[in-house]
Each structure stands twice: as C-alpha cells, then as structure tokens.
Structure prediction request, 617 residues.
Amino acid sequence: MVDELKCGIEIHQQLDTKKLFCQCECELVDEPGGEFMRRLRPSQSEMGEIDRAALLESKKRMSFVYQAPPSVSCLVERDEEPPHAANPDAMDAVLTVSRMMGCQVLDEVHFMRKIVIDGSNTTGFQRTSLVSMDGNLEVNGRSISIQSVCLEEDAARKVETNGRQVTYRIDRLGIPLIEIATGPDMRTPEEVREVAYRIGSLLRATKKVKRGIGTIREDLNISIPGGARIEIKGVQELRMLPIYVDVEMHRQQSLLRIRDLLRERGVTDVNDDIMDVTDAFKTCDSKVIRSAIKAKGRVWALPLNGYQGVLRSEDGSMRLGSELAGRARTRGVKGVFHTDEMPAYGIGVEDVKAVRDLLGIGDEGAFVLCAAKKIIAEDALDAVKERAIEALHGVPEETRDPMLDGTSRYSRPLPGAARMYPETDVPPICIDAERLARIDSNLPELPEEKAARFVAEYGVHEQQAQQLAREYDELFETLAVKGMAGVAASVILGTFPEMEREGLASQDIPHDSLVHVFDRLAAGDFAKEALPDIMRQLAQGKDVDGAIEALGLTSLDHEEAYGIIQSLVKGRESFIRERGMDAMGPLMGPVMQELRGKVDGKQASDLLRRAITELLE
Prediction:
C-alpha cells in the first residue's frame, strides 16, 4: 500500500465570525428573500489564458437565480457593492492555526480572484488569500507537511436545479473559510482519516470555528504510480474518507488495465464519426429511445472499435462505460447506452445487430448510443469520444464529486493556474511582528495537553480523556465543574453513542438543557441512573421538566426507598433464607427496576443489604 498511494488533503472549515467582506451574520436561514438572475462567462487570467475547467463550465450554457435573504446578506453578496475590508477576527483565527502548525506566515497577505462560473459565486470568482505555508504536523509518529493555509470566502448554497437553471441561496456566500492543504504524504486510506482528524482537533481547539454538518469539507487529492492526480471535492463525513481513497485507488488501477489492454489490441485512436442510426430502432421497446424519438430527437451512435469488454467487463473490474456516461452527462444528457450492457433497457439483440450493420462494424464491434436532439447528442458523444481517447493514455486528471456509497463521478477537469488573477478591490494586509506576538501569547491548549489536564484535574481515564479532548472538551468541562466528571464522561462517551445507534441525535439536545439536567442531578431531584432515559427524552424534543415528568422521576428519601425495598425482600423471603447474602446480586435487578432514577445505585445497594441483614437476623 505504501508504494501504491500518494494522497493529500485540503480541509475547508467555516470560521465563527461575521462574514469575510461585510458585517452580515454567518447563519443559514429558511427564508428565500428576493431573487435576481445572472449568467456567467469565463474571463482571461493575468497571463491571458482561460482556465480549462471554467471553459467547460461555460459550455453548459446555464443561468442562475439567487435568493437573497435580507437578514444574512447585503449588496456585497449581490456583487452590487465593493467588498469591505477583510474581517480581522477571521484573519486572527487563520494566523492562530498557522502558528499551531509551525507555518511560516507571510509578511503581506494579498487576496486573489479564483474563477468559478458554476454559479456558486455571484461574481464569477471566489476571493482567496495565501496566509502561511511550509508547516508540519506529527500524526502517529509520521511528519505530514502543511503546504499552505489560506483564508477565503465560502460559496452560495444550491437550492435546486431545473434543467439549465440553478437556484442558489446566498446566506452561505461570504462566510469565512480557512483552507489547510497538506502535502501528498499519506500512504494508506486510514492515515488520511487520522490526518483529517488531527487537523480538525486543532481547528476546534481555537474555539473560533463553526460546528455541525456542512461547516467542514474535505477535498482529497489521490494518485497511484502510473495514474494521475484526482481531486474528490467536498467530502463531509470523516468516516467516509478511507472509503473514497480506497475506491479511487481501485478505479485508477482499473483504468491502467484498460489502457494496457487497448494497447495490446493495437487501438491508437478513435477515428470514426458519429452516425444517425434511428432507422435501426423503428420497433425498439426501449422507453428512453421511444420517448426521445417522440420528442423529435434521433438516435446517434459512436463506433468504438477495439473497446469491447472494457466498457463493462463480465466480472465488473473494468467499467469504462460509466466514465463515458459521466462525461456525456456534463453536456446535458441523462446518460448513454453501450454494447457491453446490451441487450438491456428494452434494446434487444436484433437492435444491436442492426446498429452494427449500419455502422459497418463486425459482430464484436463496440459502440455508444445517445438518444436526443442532434445538437445535444453530438455534443454528448463528442465528450464520450474525448474520454475514450483519454483511456488510451491511462488516467486523466480531473475533479470528481463524492457519492454517498463511496464512489465518485466526473465533475470537471482539474483547474490550473489560469483561473487566478489579482483582486483589486481588497487592499493587502500587513502581518506585523506585534500582531504575531499577540497571537503567539494566546495560542490555545493542544488536544494532547488538554487530555493530560483532564486526567490530572478530573481523574478520568487516559483513553476517555483523549476522546473528550478531541471532540467534547467544552461540553465535558462545563458539566465536570459541577463535580460530576465521571458521570459526564459516561453520558458523553457511553449514552450518546448508544443513542446515535438507536437513531436519536444527541447533537440535537440544546446545550442549556444539558446544563440544566446536571443542575437538577446535583440538587438531588433524581439519581444518575435516570440520565440515559432523560437524554433520550431530550433528543426527542422534550424540555428537562417534561422529560422528568414523562419518566415519573421523583426523588425518594431513605425511608421511602427502604420501605419499597423491604416489600421486595419480604416477597422473596424463602429465596433469601436459602441464599443468604448471596441473594444481593439477583435482587439488585428488581430493586433498580423499581427505583431506577429515583435512588442512586450505591444507596439502593446499601438499603438492600440492610433489609436482607434485618430479615436474616
């Protein structure tokens, strides 16, 4: 594995400040607000070049509608007012993280414009700045290089896509992002997750980042020997990182096998032209083809001589057909058909033979079909042809979107340097020694330092302390100061994971409710054994008082609890006389079932021992 994989990661984390270039709040809202429409086109960089990814995006001929909620957006997000000065709190947060990773901070920070015309930015570009570089992290005994740390603005939020029109909401547009890019130093899929976890823990330690789903995204840059750099962009779940890496490794290995097989067959190019083969489908049962013809479309075919068996091999190890379909979809069609998957989808053996006859290719000749109007079908099959030619050379560099099952699909070519040009509306920011000294004097506690303090101050186990310090430090310390460190650790590391497995989201419990629960526990309103049940009630939307009432929790004094236990003991007198004090263990279950949440477990045990002793005497 070490010799096969090179992987780097880029982490984009939202900062918990005002927006980067205005004073709007950084919140996502449900209100759509007013709407306006834009069309975007690529522009030349300062070198006079047009970025290939932007050029491809422009060929989609999309239009964009923007929803502008007035509570969280202004004229800056609409691109109707110049950006204000960059938010100093956001810059301080980036400087803090940079110093925590030993990066070299630049003396002067300049913002650049990065061309993005997929509609996610109203301006047609994203503002970004390089703040520091050349740092490193130690993860599991290995040094991972930090190539760069940047401050940039987040994009607008996609609401829906309707044909060639996309609707965005600009509540997210302009939220400050810190971007951390590592070197291609990771050698196993699991190491990728460990590095991402380490960086995430440093970000959380600053107390200056947002938390929750959607506030942090990872881009993976993956390559294997003989392959190419592939960027999987926008992964949101940490647990999925190794899966995406592993699947991409196998995808590249498959593409290399396809390249070698095509070379063995003597395939050097795709020379045939696209042909109208509608006549072969006059009696076809395919709903897709019949619908296309009914809509005044035609059926078009691209011959791919020599490609049979690699579009989708029988064992599923080679799937060039899905790569071709991915390219076609970027040109406005839902997909294409190819011979390795036929007969299927209503296309029969006779239909395939008829197409081969029209194309003048042999019984084993491969082809790809597209059913659509001429201009759309030709554009889609041109993209298929380009991708088929790329297969002769192995793995093409590209950006891919992550899918929920761990696979990825083609998005666009990898962008190059041509997408960058200077931002003339935002002045440079000088980072002087005084500012860095202030940052250095207030660096946050590292996770490992915090874990050691948790062990020393609160007496929790070292392994528990490490988990708490990495993910739940603020919550734990808030609850632990009430003198209940052990109970808090048990709830956070035991009860919450159990709830997640049951489909109950512990993160939905308001922080104030958790504090209130522990206040009530400290006041003796119920026993700690009731906490798991209370947490489940809170996760389902009840407030603390409602949860306690629903569970019928009323704390009992010693005598009330002892009376209940005495009744249980009398009902099992013969069993107790037979077993003596050994009856304690079997009887604790019924006792706790009767008193759960009303009496502390140790107190119940002491009272049961007293009742049994009195009976035996």
Remarks:
- Residues 558-616 form one domain.
- The mean pLDDT is 89.
- Residues 508 and 539 are 6 Å apart (CA to CA).
- Residues 241-264 form the longest helix (24 residues).
